[in-house]
Each structure stands twice: as structure tokens, then as C-alpha cells.
Write a structure and sequence with these properties.
CATH topology of one domain in chain A: Cytochrome Bc1 Complex, Chain D, domain 2
Number of helices of chain A: 11
CATH architecture of one domain in chain A: Orthogonal Bundle
Distance between the termini of chain A: 50 Å
Largest sheet of chain A: none
Radius of gyration of chain B: 24 Å
Mean pLDDT of chain A: 85
Radius of gyration of chain A: 22 Å
Number of domains of chain B: 3
Strand content of chain A: under 5%
Order of helices and strands of chain B: HHHEEHHHHHHEEHEEHHHHHHHH
Helix content of chain A: 40-55%
Order of helices and strands of chain A: HHHHHHHHHHH
Distance between the termini of chain B: 66 Å
Oligomer: heterodimer
Largest interface: A-B, 35 and 38 residues
CATH class of one domain in chain A: Mainly Alpha
CATH superfamily of one domain in chain A: Cytochrome c-like domain
Chain lengths: ~250, ~425
């Protein structure tokens, strides 16, 4: 099949005109031109969660780019359905259906973007050792599982439901563990992270958060494909398959 | 002696007047009611009846209140917030203990038509029976058959949190004597069938005036025919007037665009946001094009009302407002407020921007939002919430700029307006 040169020329001219028009619009508006894409649709999210969902500078709105899709979907459902009580997110998501939330989760999960440099660690050696031990081994005497048992040996998460723990600001980690302790963050029952956070002493929360925030994210880090061993604790948010993510 | 007799006579007269008044209130509450007959055994409902019942239940947006956020479908539990306290929507699933499992079709009809529960207790008009009274008996039976076909969910109903005297049956009886009378829709022979069908849906099941009409101090609307706009109590979103050309009258729209708005949530001249999104998500997107066209006919024929004169702009757009617009809005809404078709609404010439009430504008800027995801618009474009980044004074400058630019000529928004809505919305 051959293309007529005239049609090709017309097509090139049309493309060029489009490019010029787009460039003009971009420079006039000082922003990217309109595109019929998910990124364009998701400007509602990236306003707070940072460009492309890479996290805002204040450390309060977390990075969402590259987190496992099932985890992101669970959070979207938890906000929309009122388990996580935060009016801004709940109201934003209220008019959206499961199918679109699934697509939104897949969009952000699919973004493969570099992580910022880790925070500097200002913990005394004893606190460091305590944090490292709790993360890697837990505390069997208290029935506290190791973080790495679910969140992966490299703490970069386990697809599709368990998020990574590194590459996140200390304040965000502190806020989440605190919210689980006082019932402000709620996941599907059984809420394993609520149980774990409540077994931690308040000063342990601070040390673990500081230690995690100081760990560098290896280049090309990805969530593990699956659990290395059966998870040590039952979690309502971890379904047998991604299609069974709780409603 | 004479004094004592006079006092006694006066007391008797007062008592008689009180009894007469109570009798009047009781009569006004019971008028038009036939005693319920013995419950007849239920005939199994056919697929056609169930489908019609489902459509009618959608038209009534019953799920909008009777399904709690993240809760079981139709199992109730959602708080209906009113200035008098909260009323919790009840369980409509056929569970025998907590739902409608032991109800008869007659009792269901009486609830819709007379606003009384199975036991005869008067219902709170948060349940819009001043509208549902207009629903025909056959339609009520179809809805009942559909609800009885749902999976039963055991979820106990919650008691309302109303203060005295609003929590008493006597107060409800007085309210009903003042504001409620049972009625059935009767077609207007002078109007086309489509208009009559629209009237039946808008005034009855659609209960549009529950939001689109102002409420008085006792929470009563100006009646099912009034759609002249009202501030929704507690939520503080303004449901615009459907009769005013300056607000949300659709008389000048092509009818297919009115249908499109109700079906998909977006149309060339307007997007649905806020509480109306719930209505589109739970109700109107499921209605047939014929029923939506009927509703459109009725709405387009509403007599124009409200302010018809051009309001004068109080102030020229400010440089600060222009700068904020350039920083935060221009990328989507455009240099001239033209928007992007089917993605971002135009702000130039938009009545949502220029109407007198600024409540919705403030809500949208502070909270952002998506138009509803519907089968006709499954992947809507969203707007970020600006509450975390813009101060009240900035929001006021920005909105004042938008209301006075590109041909818009509406009065400015004050920082106090923004602060009031921010406080109410948080």
C-alpha cells in the first residue's frame, strides 16, 4: 500500500500546524496545552500530590507515583466510601465509580519516576539499631511482625496491595502511624496496620519513621512481585487477587 | 362568685378551642386516608414489574439517601442533616427485623402517599413524601416489588438526633397540618403528554424542589411547583433557580442538551458539580431518554421568574485577581475563560459564575471536584482543591476577577463570603 505524496504532504502540514498551534497555546498560557490524556484528567490530584504525583514539598501529601495499583485503589475506595475520614479527598472522589478509580490507580502505579534523595539521619546509634531491628525482625514477644515481612525485603512494597516504606518523608510516615493509632486512618477489616501501630510505643514510631525516611531508594526500585512467605498477619486490604479488591 | 364563673367559662372555652385545634390538626393529618385492608398474599413479581420498579426507584433517587457512604445498597444509615438535627434514612431492604420485610404493599403506599410508617407513626418530611404523595399506586407497587426483591441486609435503623419539640409526633402533626396534603398527580389536559410525564417525574419522584426551592424557618419548601432556587441547609450549596434565565433555566437550551446534562453530567452550556452530581450518579443517568426528555419539556416550560435585569458590576477586575487567574486557572479554563469543550467548563458567559449566590463558586475553588463519572462521561476531567494553597482573600480576588471578566458583569466576592463558606464546609 503506497501513500500518495500529496496526502502525505497534507498530513505533515496538518501536523505542523497542530504543533505550532499547540506551542502558541502553551507559550500563551505558560502551561502545557490541553491533551486528552489521563495525566490531564489527573490535574485534580497532582495539584496537591506534586507534579505527576511525585509528592509535594511539604511532606504531608504523599507521593502516589509508582505505588502498587491495588494499594492505591484501596486508598481511593477507603476515602470515597468514608473509611478514611478526610473530607477533601472524600468529596473529590464521591462522584467517581469503581471503574474510573481503578483506572486512576493504574495510571499512578504505572508512573516510573525517580525518587528524591533521602533525608539525613540524625538518630543516636542506639535508636538507629532499635529502628533497624524492629523493621527487619519485629518483636515476636509483642506479636509485632517485621515490616519487611509484608513490605518487602528491600522495603519497596509488594505488588499489588502493599506500599513501599522508603522514599517517603518522615512527617508523612509519622502522621500515618499516628492516624492508625488514634483511628483516623482506617483500612478494610481486619485492619492489620491499626493493630501493628497500636503495639508500637510512641517513641518507637518516631524512630522508625526517621530511620525509614533516611534510607535511599535504589535506582529502578520496584515493588516485589509477590510475598516471599505467607504474610504473618491478616489484612483486609490484601485480597487474593487484584480483581478481588474490596468494594 | 361571678369572677370564678367567668374564669371557669374562659377556661372551658380555651380548652374547647384547644381540642378543636387538635381535632383540626388530626383531621388534616388523616384526611383522604382509607383504612388499610387485610394484607393479601403477595403474587410473585415478574421481571417486567421489577425492571419498572427499579427504574422508578432510580427516578426517586432513593439510593441517594438510603445508601450510606460505603454501605450496603438501600440498607439506610445515611444522616440527612437538617437545621433541626439529623434524621437517618431507613433500611429499605426486605430484612424482616430491620427493613421492609414485614411491610405490605398497602403500607408502602401509605408511607409514600400519606407519610406514615408501618405502625402508623408520622414520618419526618426529610423523607420527601410531600413529593412522593403524587406517585401513582401502580408505580408505588412496582417500587415496593423491586425493593422486596433486593438481598435482605440486617442493619438496624438509627434514631434521629432532633431536639425538643421537633422530635415529637405532635410537632410533626402540626407541621403536616400546615404544609402537607396528600395528592395524586392529575394530567393537565391542556398540555402535551410529554409535559405531563415530566410534571409527574419532576414534582413527584424527582423531588427536585427538595433542593431547588427555598425553605422557611420550619423547613418547608414553597411547594412542589416552586423551583426558584434555594440554599441547601447545612451543606451550603446553592441549588440554582430552574426558572430564572440568570441562573439555571434551561428554556433556551436545545432539549437534547438538557437530556445530555441529566444523562451524562456534562453539556455544552453547563457541568454538574456538588450535590447534583449525586443525583446524576444515583438517579438521572439511569432514566430512559424518553423520561429525561419529558423532564426537559417540563423544565423548559417553567415560566421565567427571578431577577431579569442585568446586574451592574460593582468593580473592574483587579490586577491581583488577574495574576491569580494566570497562576492557577488559565491552563485549563483558558486566556479568555473559554474552557475546553467536554473537559473544562467555560467561565465566560457562565451563569454558574455570574449568578447572585457565590456559594457554589467558593465550594468549587476550595474543594475542587470532578463532574460525575457516568456511562456517557466515564472519565471526567477534574479540578484540584485550592483550599490548601489559597487564602480567603486570594479566593475572593480570584472569583471577583472571574465574575467581572470576558463580558461577565457580576458583583465581587468578599473574603468574608469565602471565610463563611470555608468554615461551613470544613
Amino acid at each position: 500500500m503506497t501513500k500518495s505524496p500529496r496526502r502525505l504532504a497534507a498530513r505533515v502540514a496538518a501536523r505542523l500546524t497542530l504543533c505550532v498551534a499547540a506551542a502558541t497555546a502553551a507559550s500563551a498560557a505558560g502551561a502545557a496545552p490541553f491533551e486528552d490524556t489521563m495525566a490531564q484528567r489527573m490535574l485534580a490530584c497532582t495539584g496537591c500530590h506534586g507534579p505527576e504525583g511525585r509528592a509535594a514539598p511539604d511532606g504531608y501529601y504523599p507521593r502516589i507515583a509508582g505505588k502498587p495499583a491495588g494499594y492505591l485503589l484501596n486508598q481511593l475506595l477507603n476515602f470515597r466510601d468514608g473509611r478514611r475520614p478526610y473530607a477533601l479527598m472524600s468529596n473529590l472522589l464521591a462522584p467517581l465509580n469503581d471503574a474510573y478509580l481503578r483506572e486512576i490507580a493504574a495510571h499512578f502505579a504505572g508512573l516510573d519516576l525517580p525518587y528524591p534523595a533521602p533525608a539525613t539521619l540524625d538518630l543516636p546509634a542506639a535508636d538507629r539499631a532499635l529502628a533497624a531491628r524492629l523493621v527487619a525482625e519485629g518483636d515476636p514477644a509483642r506479636g509485632l511482625p517485621a515490616c519487611t515481612a509484608c513490605h518487602g525485603a528491600t522495603m519497596t512494597g509488594t505488588a499489588p496491595f502493599v506500599p513501599g516504606l522508603i522514599g517517603l518523608p518522615r512527617d508523612y510516615l509519622n502522621a500515618q502511624l499516628g492516624a492508625w493509632r488514634n483511628g483516623k486512618r482506617v483500612a478494610q477489616a481486619p485492619d492489620c496496620m491499626a493493630a501493628i501501630a497500636n503495639k508500637l510505643a510512641p517513641d518507637e514510631v518516631g524512630r522508625i519513621s526517621s530511620w525509614l525516611a533516611a534510607q535511599p531508594v535504589p535506582a529502578g526500585a520496584k515493588p516485589a512481585a509477590g510475598f516471599a512467605a505467607p504474610p504473618p498477619i491478616a489484612c483486609g486490604g490484601v485480597a487474593a487477587s487484584a480483581d478481588q479488591a474490596p468494594r | 362568685m361571678t369572677l370564678r364563673r367567668t374564669l371557669r367559662n374562659a377556661g372551658l372555652a380555651a380548652l374547647a378551642a384547644l381540642l378543636a385545634l387538635a381535632g383540626l390538626v388530626a383531621w388534616l393529618n388523616l384526611r383522604g386516608e382509607e383504612p388499610l385492608g387485610p394484607t393479601s398474599p403477595r403474587a410473585p413479581a415478574g421481571a417486567e414489574l421489577l425492571a419498572r420498579g427499579e427504574m422508578l426507584t432510580r427516578a426517586g433517587d432513593c439510593a441517594g439517601c438510603h445508601t450510606a457512604r460505603g454501605g450496603h445498597f438501600y440498607a439506610g444509615g445515611r444522616a440527612i442533616e437538617t437545621p433541626f438535627g439529623n434524621v437517618f434514612a431507613s433500611n429499605l431492604t426486605p430484612d424482616a427485623e430491620t427493613g421492609l420485610g414485614r411491610w405490605s404493599a398497602d403500607e408502602f403506599w401509605r408511607a409514600l402517599h400519606h407519610g406514615r410508617s408501618k405502625s402508623g407513626r408520622l414520618l419526618y418530611p426529610a423523607f420527601p413524601y410531600p413529593n412522593f404523595t403524587r406517585v401513582g399506586r401502580a408505580d408505588a407497587d412496582a417500587m415496593f416489588a423491586y425493593l422486596q426483591s433486593l438481598p435482605a441486609v440486617a442493619q438496624p435503623n438509627r434514631e434521629p438526633t432532633l431536639g425538643f419539640p421537633f422530635n415529637t409526633q405532635a410537632a410533626l402533626a402540626v407541621w403536616r397540618a400546615l404544609y402537607f396534603r396528600p395528592e395524586v398527580h392529575v394530567d393537565d389536559p391542556g398540555r402535551p403528554a410529554e409535559w405531563n410525564r415530566g410534571a409527574y417525574l419532576v414534582e413527584g419522584l424527582g423531588h427536585c424542589n427538595a433542593c431547588h426551592s427555598a425553605r422557611n424557618v420550619l423547613g418547608a419548601t414553597r411547594g412542589t411547583l416552586d423551583l426558584q432556587g434555594g440554599l441547601i441547609p447545612v451543606q451550603n450549596w446553592y441549588a440554582p433557580s430552574l426558572s430564572s434565565p440568570r441562573e439555571a433555566s434551561v428554556a433556551a437550551w436545545p432539549k437534547r442538551e438538557v437530556v445530555q446534562l441529566l444523562k451524562t453530567g456534562i453539556a455544552p452550556q453547563g457541568f454538574v458539580m456538588g450535590p447534583m452530581s449525586e443525583v446524576v450518579v444515583n438517579s438521572t443517568q439511569y432514566l430512559s431518554d424518553a423520561d429525561l426528555a419529558a423532564m426537559a419539556s417540563y423544565l423548559q416550560a417553567l415560566p421565567p421568574a427571578g431577577e431579569l435585569e442585568e446586574p451592574a458590576a460593582a468593580r473592574a477586575p483587579s490586577a491581583r485577581g488577574a495574576a491569580l487567574y494566570k497562576d492557577h486557572c488559565v491552563a485549563c479554563h483558558g486566556e479568555r475563560g473559554e474552557g475546553v469543550p467536554a473537559a473544562y467548563p467555560a467561565l465566560s458567559g457562565s451563569r454558574a459564575v455570574t449568578m447572585r449566590s457565590t456559594a457554589n463558586l467558593v465550594h468549587i475553588v476550595l474543594e475542587g471536584g470532578f463532574p460525575p463519572a457516568t456511562s456517557g462521561n466515564p472519565r471526567p476531567f477534574g479540578m484540584p482543591p485550592f483550599a490548601p494553597v489559597l487564602q480567603d482573600a486570594d479566593v475572593a480576588e480570584l472569583l471577583s476577577f472571574v465574575r467581572a471578566s470576558w463580558g461577565n458583569r457580576a458583583a465581587p466576592v468578599s473574603a468574608l463570603d469565602v471565610a463563611r463558606h470555608r468554615a461551613a464546609g470544613s
